[in-house]
Design a protein that fits this description.
There is one protein chain. By secondary structure, the protein is α+β, with helices and mostly antiparallel strands. The chain is built from three helices and four strands. A two-stranded parallel sheet has the order 1-2. Strands 3-4 form a two-stranded antiparallel sheet. It is globular and about 40 Å long. The two termini are about 15 Å apart.
Amino acid sequence: MAVCTDTPEQIANGRKKHGLMGTFLADPKLEVTDLFGLRNLNTALRPPGLPGLPIPTTLLIDSEGIVRWKDQSADYMQRSNPDYVRAALNEYF
């Protein structure tokens, strides 16, 4: 699941444009982002109309709701390397 600041309409358009198939949660007010403590506190990264941006983060959460692994990026444009995530999946699950 991906959590993003886009509206449901923007998510739908992005899914079509980029051929995305995953599950997306619209979080324009950063409510879910804040629940996980993942708001980027760099005030320079505050687009007009948004309260801020989340830190790009990949979490592996088990069936009990326990975070087993976390990867974060210092660059808001950078995401977790799929091979790195795959290795963590193999290790923790």
